[in-house]
Every structure is written in C-alpha cells, then in structure tokens.
Amino acid sequence: MSSYIPVIGLEVHAELLTKSKVFCTCSAEFGxxxxxxxxxxxxxxxxxxxxxxxTAVEYAVRAGFAMGSDIxxxxxxxxxxxxxxxxxxxxxISQLNLPLCINGSVPIEYEEDGVKKTKNIxxxxxHLEEDAGKLVHDDLNGVSLADYNRCGVPLIEIVTEPDMSSxxxxxxxxxxVALLLQYAGVCDCRMEQGSIRADVNVSIMKPTDTxxxxxxxxxxxxxIKAIGRAIDFEIYRQGKLLDMGKKVVQETRRFDDNRxxxxxxxxxxxxxxxxxxPEPDILQVNFTDEQLDAIKASLPEMPDARTxxxxxxxxLSENDARILVGSKILSDFFDDSVKAYDxxxxxxxxxxxxxxxxxxxxxxxxxxxxxxAQQFAKLVQMADTEKVSKNDAKDIFREMSEKGGDPEEIAxxxxxxxxxxxxxxxxxIDEVLAANEKAVAQYKSGDAKVxxxxxxxxxxxxxxxxxxKAIKEELEKKLASL
Length: 482
Ligand code: ADP
Ligand code: MG
Ligand code: ZN
Known about the structure:
Blueprint lengths: L4 E11 L38 H13 L3 E2 L2 E2 L2 E4 L9 E4 L6 E12 L2 E16 L3 E5 L4 E5 L6 E7 L6 H18 L11 E10 L10 E6 L2 H20 L7 E6 L4 E7 L9 E2 L6 E2 L2 H9 L5 H10 L5 H8 L2 H13 L3 H17 L12 H12 L5 H14 L3 H7 L8 H14 L1 H8 L5 H12 L6 H14 L1
Parallel strand pairs: 12-13
Antiparallel strand pairs: 1-10, 1-11, 2-6, 3-16, 4-5, 4-15, 6-7, 7-10, 8-9, 11-12, 13-14
Helix pairs in contact: 1-2, 2-3, 5-6, 7-8, 7-9, 9-10, 12-14, 12-15, 13-14
The chain binds adenosine-5'-diphosphate, magnesium ion (MG) and zinc ion (ZN).
The site of zinc ion (ZN) has 8 residues, from loops.
C-alpha cells in the first residue's frame, strides 16, 4: 500500500450531569423503566413549550473553559430537522451558527511506537443540544420500540478541527476530553452507559496533496477501543480503494464491533439537509462578563496544571504525577493527604503502591474509601518515622481498608507500635543471650556469622518495641561488654 497521511476529526457528544432534562423538569438520570421519565415536552406533544435549564447552559460553558474556548456572550438555539422515531418532535433543538463556545484547544499526550508525544488538538466549537431517545429493535416480532427516557437529556457536542492523524491520537483525545469533563464536574464520563460517544471522521491524503481527501463518518462509537479499531479499519479501507484507482465516497458508515469493519449506512447529510432555522420558543442566551468570570473562577485546578505542580513543586516523576491526576478523586485525595503530612513522594508511593493494589483487587473503591486522607497520611507518616515497621504498616492498612479506623489505634491494639523503649529492649536482650549461651560463646570466640542468628532472636522478641536499627545498636553494645 502506498503511504497516505490519515486526517481525523472528531465530534464528541457528552451528556451533562444535570438533575433534570434540558427543556423540561423530567429526571435526566440514566436508566429507569421505559418511558417513565417523560412528559409532554420531551415526548414532543404539540403545543408544549420548552424552558431552558440554566445549569445545563452553565455546564456547557464550564466544559468550554476546561477546553480553553472562547465563550460567546450571545448565543442562540436552532431547530435541526430530521425524521427518525428516536426524536418525537421530528427536530432536535441544537445550535448552528452561534454556539456557546468556539476556538478551544486540548493538549494530548500519547505514545506511538514506544515514543512519548504531545500535540494540541484545536476545538472548532462546543454547542448545547438535546439527546434523542433510544430505539430497541425487536427483530423476532418485527417491531421497533421507543424509550424516550434519554430524550431531552442535555448534551454537548465538541467538534474538533481535523487535527489528528492516527488512532492513538484520537484515543488520547477522547480520554483527555473525558478527564477534562470529569474535572469540570459536568459529565460522569461512563462510556459504557453512553454518556460519552464520538462520531469519527476519517480521510486520507498523499504527502504531496494540498487538499484533504474525501471523508467517511462513523457515528456513535461508544468505547475508546472501538474508536481506535474503526479508524484503523477506515485508513486501511480507503488506502486500498485509492491504491486500486477508485474513489472514496463521502458517506456515513457504521462500525460493526464484532467484525471490526465499517459498512456504508447512508450518504452523508449536509447542513442544508437538516433545514436548520432559529428555534422560536427559546430565549437567546446573554452572558455578562461577570457571569462568565464567576463560572471560570469556579473551576478547580485542571489536570495539566496539577501534573505540572506535582512534577515541579513536589518532585514526582511524570509517570507518577499522571497516575494521580488520571482521576480527580485520587488527585484530591493525594492533595488532602499531603496537606496533612508534607511528604509528597512518600504519600505518592503509598498511594501508587498499597492503595492502588487494594483498589485493583476490588477490596476498596476510590469513590467510597473507608478512611479519610488525614488517617491515610498519618499511617504513611508513622511508617516513615518508624513508629511502625514498613511491613506492619501494610497490615495496618489492610485493616483500615476493611473496617476503617485510626492507624495509631489499630497499631496499638495489635501491639505494633514501636516505642523504642531501651529499658525493655535491654531486659529482653539479656533474656535472649541467656537462652543462647552457646551462640554467644561462639560469637565471643570470633565467629561473626552467628551475630545474624542472635539478632534474629532479639528482633522476634522485640517486635513492635524497637526498630531493627535500635536493636542492633543495643545488641552490639551488650555483646562488646561481655
Ligand atoms: P459537518 O457539519 O458536515 O458534520 P464539519 O465541517 O462540521 O462537517 O466537520 C465535522 C467533523 O469532520 C469535524 O470534526 C472536522 O474536523 C471533520 N472533518 C472535516 N473534514 C474532514 C476531512 N477531510 N477528513 C477528516 N475529517 C474531517
Ligand atoms: Mg457532523
Ligand atoms: Zn420531560
């Protein structure tokens, strides 16, 4: 196959985490028995009037800020007409020429051929619209059933410029968008429940071409893996067509997850096919500078800023920083722990070690940890300052993971607190030496190897009383004085 440059642009749809739908007061929650979350407005009854959900507008603006966009202070809604039973009004309320957000940019980090790379993906626009219902096709009985619970759930569409050129870049982009939306607190990002879906546009061109090639669009991909596979297949399919002297036709294709192939679905529709016109029933959105500033100021510190802070102020490795920042809950937990015990590296090691291990084993969940950051930090500090041994700290952590609790109390109850009580240590060492007269004599006659054995006996008897270092010092002193 000749070498072509792939050109990829994405349209990512994300459902917003509002309590109610975007134009009525029905619950926007996922699930529910079929058509139990519907009213005359979202089921498209004639004569009903939509009222816009202010939180949905604010969330869309938050998403815009999270992706470095400019916000249009003046924004309008439009009707996008199409006839398909998942949309009972026969039009979708969306935004065409004056969307809420324009001109953003999302930095991505990804690995290709074992090399770490970064790139900026430009965002053309982010607009607010309503989701459609769900159709269940019952082939056995030859009917299709409509569930309108999802109809009217607020949705943002994030449209990129065609800036990506591989499956790895597109996958990294969707992951980054999900992370930004998670930090902005506007989407639960559960791809398996469809709260993030992507339409993928792919074309290819020769290195000498000055214009983009004809693209195909794959709609509604709902996993990172499917996005990658659909892109790879499309690049391959289009390359084969061009190699044979054939043309790529502009069309919408469906990705078949089982076969790993895309299939022609329909010829691509253009904006004029939708007969867009201004939505007459919804007021235009007008923001003041103060309102926009307040929304911007309410965003938390975002992932790239955190990664940078962890590396430059805390001295963490880039890899460690990215693991922590990869989840807002985890990163917040880390920050709270460091506030309680100012040793970022040590806290990070314990999180990326023991904490992640228990999470990966499914024993604890990040969303519902049975201990708080202060208790966690205290345990890390106790291990660092040798109030408990490193090994015992793991035991204590296991108990905290099972039942919660204060690490110091657990350590005391289990007799694991190291008191470094030298008086007690000396008495125990005396006992051990008395019980091992033969070994002591051997040691005194110059057999240094036997020290390890004596030390082992003392450590066992002094577990939880002294650190090994303190025991060794006392033991050496004692033996020298004999
Ligand atoms: P439409 O409104 O017809 O869907 P847009 O111009 O809004 O078209 O583009 C939709 C998506 O397709 C955008 O993400 C854009 O980056 C991408 N895109 C546009 N042209 C190409 C192309 N030649 N190859 C790949 N992607 C493209
Ligand atoms: Mg489109
Ligand atoms: Zn409703």
